[in-house]
Structure formats: structure tokens, C-alpha cells
Amino acid sequence: MVDEYKKYDTLLGTISATVSATAMLVGVHHYYRKQRQPDAELKDYLVGLGAQARLLSTTNIPRLQYTFQQAKKGYQHYDVDGCEMQMSQNDRSTDLLARHTKTIISRPVCWVSGVASMPKKINFDRHYNGTVNQNNNDSGMDFGVVGIDADRQIVWQTTMPERVHDIVVQPFSHSADELVNASDSHNDSCNHERDVVVMGRRPSEQFWVLDTATGQVKTTITASENRHFYGHACYSLDGSLLYVTENDTVSLNGKVGIYDVSSAYKKIAEFDSHGIGPHELIMHPDAETLIVANGGIKTEQASREELNLDTMRPSLVYLNRHTGQLLEQITPEHNQMSVRHLAMHDDGTVVIGVQFQGEKHINVPLVLTHKRGDAEFAPLTMPNNQWQRFHQYIASVAVDSEHDLLCVTTPIGGCAAVYDLNTRKLIDGVDLPDCAGASVLLDKVSGKSTSDKVGFIVSDGQGQLTALEVKALSHAESSDGESFDKNSIVLPNSKGHAMSFDNHLQTL
């Protein structure tokens, strides 16, 4: 009996010591975690334990499957904690259909982003064949795409065989009568599965179609003969067609390729972009007009060398999306103001991000707006004309139509700026080293854009996802026309990840 008591006493002592040691380790970890993420809470550990329990309970469920041929192309997929998927021993054999699986913890994806580098987990060709996959970046880091939830956590990550640029999310399907109200459905977009098109960095010969909820690669599209892609695409508002900026490698004229979603993204037509070097393109809210930013730069495919900087002719064009008919064409005041990135306000205002290719000492406006029928661009102003802070380079532009806000970023200048589009005045600028991607901020709890959570999320090359929240949002303008108090941006602490986010970040 004494021995029995001693046994229980030893067991209780062991349990007590284990609990105490675990509590101490959690406390120390949480202390240092708070230094990096001040909004971190102790309950996060309980959430993590619950997630791992669910993960362990479903490890035998083959939720996602990919063929070995896809793995050879350089696609790799990981669970939400970045762990490698395991190849099934029963299937790794004779018939080239060796499959691997992963289990996704069900969290809605609210943003998607390209990744310039993330830790390389495994090279499938080397692992299974002993060969090196020449399509993969072999530097110890991978190119990829990630899905991000409303809490700015990574839901899935998918490696890609080359560096990617734009990420284009398929709209909800709406009838013609419903298109005018399509924006009302946007708030619920985190809860729906759609396609996301991943464009290669220009000039590229491929784009990929992924599932937004899981990151699964559904299909790969290769450019047609004498064509390469220029980094951007957009859907028709009903989600049935994809429009892609392309280059004729013989004439070097810009093209817009048209791809039928219902036919596995088969190319069905193309028309002229009415310019050279078309980059981003977007759909007008009227659902019938395509807007194309012709950067004006001829790019040599192999070296990416820019061939005509002295004679370049950038322009913004409006095209009939069905026929390619040129409806309007506007050129900037300086021929080296490369019209590059676009964002659309629901009222039909186009916001243009410029990348100036001229001499460094020349100070030109880098953000312009335009509406159909206007004879020229309307530049946004920068206090004291300090566009030099942006080093002549705008990487992304993002518009919050509901609150009339604009965010622009520059990785070279290492800053982001937020504008009030009502007054066309700068609200605030924030230093964010190597920032590029920008998208509308969603509420952490609901995953929706709400009046209680107004602002933008900005990604950067240092792995940070930073919320730029606009406070003191006034619903009535003050006497001098200002809608916001000065210094009205708060900068919550960023959430860091072990990866380098690339140029663009898109909201579902």
C-alpha cells in the first residue's frame, strides 16, 4: 500500500512538474511573442491546441490530391503550419499517379498574395527521382502563393515554378440585372470558393488557376505561339471570361487575350491593346468596358531589358470588351510616365499608379485619376510636391469605394500613403520598408469590410502584413471640406511571417 501511495505521489509530482514547466515555457514564449505581436493573447495557445487536435483527428482524410506530374512542375503544398504533405506509401509507385494529401483547417481565406520567397520544404524531383527540377528556384527559397484569413494568418501556401505577379480573384456569378448590386455580395466573399488566377511575372509564358479555399492548382495555361503574358489579368464581372495582357513577340504590339472559364480557360480570341507593353487591366462597373494601362515599354523576353525608354508612349485606353473597339485613349503629360497599375472606384473613377522612367531629378505626379469623357488625367497632389519620397515608383493602388479612400505603395521609397478621394488630399503617409501589396482591410471577426474597421492591409518583402486603420472617420465634412482629422491613421503592429510577400495583394 505504501508503494502504491508512493507511485501515485510520484505520478502527481511528475504531472505537477510538467504543468509548471509547460506554464513557464508558455509564459516565456508569450512574453517574447508580445514584443513582436502586442495583440497576441494567451487564448491563442488554446486555439492552437484545438486546431492541432482537429488536424490529428483528420489526418487520414485525403482532402486534396495532386498528381505526380504536377509535383514535377514544381507545385508543393503545405498545411496551415507550413508542414510538408506526406506522399501516400500505397500510391507512390508504378503509374505516375502517386498522390500526396494535406488537411486544411477550415478557415475562410480573405486575401491572396504572391510570395517572392518562402522557405523551401522539399524538392519533389530530387526526393523521388534524384534529379533537380530546373523550373524551381534552387536557392533554398521557393516562389509561391498564399491564402490569408481575416486575422492575417496563413491558411494555405502553394509553391510555384516561377515568380508570380498579379493574383486575380474570380467574381461571383451574377445575371445582368444583378451586376449593379454585385458589390453587396463582396462582404460575404470569404465564405465562398472561387477560382484565383496567378499570373507569372512579366514576361511570362504561363498562368495558373487555383482554388481560393485550398490553394489547389486546378490547371496551367501556356501562352499561344509568339505571345507572352505581361503580368496582369481581370475577369468579366459575371466571372465567365478572363482578359489577360499579352505581348506579340514579333511585332511587340500589345494584345488582350480572352479566355473562356467554362472551357478550362481556353483562349477564344484576342484584340489589340492599342499600345505597347500593356500591364494592368480592369473592368469598368458598367460591365462592358475594359480599361487597359499601356505602359509604353517594349520588353525583351529573355533579359527583361526595356528597349525604348526614350521613345515610349504610355496611355490609358477604354475598350469594348466584346469587340476590342477603341472607345477612348488618354496619354500622360510626360511620355516617360509609364501608366502601370490601376484600381477602380465604384463610381467609375480610375486610379492610376505611375512608374516614371525619366531622369531622377524630375518630379512628376505618380498617382492620377480619370473618368470617361475627361480630356486628360487629374493628378493627386502630394504636400510640398514630395513625390520624390516615392522614388518615381508606385507598386500598387487600392480603392475603398465605400469610404472613398485610396492607398498607394512604393517598395523603393519604403512607404505607403492613404488619400481621401472626396477632397483628393493626403490623409497620412507611413514608413513601411519594401511594401508593395495593398488591399482593403477586413474586420478581424466578421471577415467583412465594415464602417468600424476602415483602412487597408499592406504586405511587404520582410514578411509583414500591416493594417493601416483610418480612425476619426467623419460622416459629415467639416467647414474646410476635410473629412478626416489630421494624423488619423493608426498603425497597428504588423503580423510577421517567414516569407517575402510580392507585389500584389488581393481581397476576395
Question: Can you tag this structure with a few keywords?
Answer:
508 residues, mainly beta, 5-stranded antiparallel beta sheet
Walkthrough of the structure:
This protein has four helices and 32 strands. The chain has a five-stranded antiparallel β-sheet with strand order 1-6-5-4-32, with no helix packed on it. Strands 27, 28, 29, 30 and 31 form a five-stranded antiparallel β-sheet that branches. Strands 7-8-9-10 form a four-stranded antiparallel β-sheet, with no helix packed on it. It starts with a helix and ends with a strand. The model is unreliable at 35-39, 50-104, 122-139, 174-189 and 474-484 (pLDDT under 50). Strand 5 (141-148) and strand 6 (154-160) form a beta hairpin. It has 508 residues and is mainly β. 12% of the residues lie in helices and 36% in strands. The protein is globular. It has helices at 2-36, 43-57, 68-72, 124-129; strands at 76-78, 86-87, 100-101, 111-119, 141-148, 154-160, 164-169, 195-200, 206-211, 217-222, 227-235, 241-248, 254-260, 266-272, 278-283, 289-294, 315-320, 326-330, 337-344, 350-356, 367-370, 378-379, 396-400, 405-410, 415-420, 425-431, 435-440, 455-460, 464-470, 489-490, 495-496, 500-507.
Shape: globular
Strands of the widest sheet, in order across it, are 1-6-5-4-32
The major beta sheet can be summarized as:
5 strands, antiparallel
Distance between the termini: 65 Å
Mean pLDDT: 76
Strand tally, please?
32
What percentage of the residues does DSSP assign to strands (E)?
35-45%
Overall SS class:
mainly beta
**Contiguous uncertain segments of 5+ residues:** 35-39, 50-104, 122-139, 174-189, 474-484
Radius of gyration (Å): 25 Å
Oligomer: single chain
Number of helices: 4
Helical amount among residues, as a percent range?
Answer: 10-25%
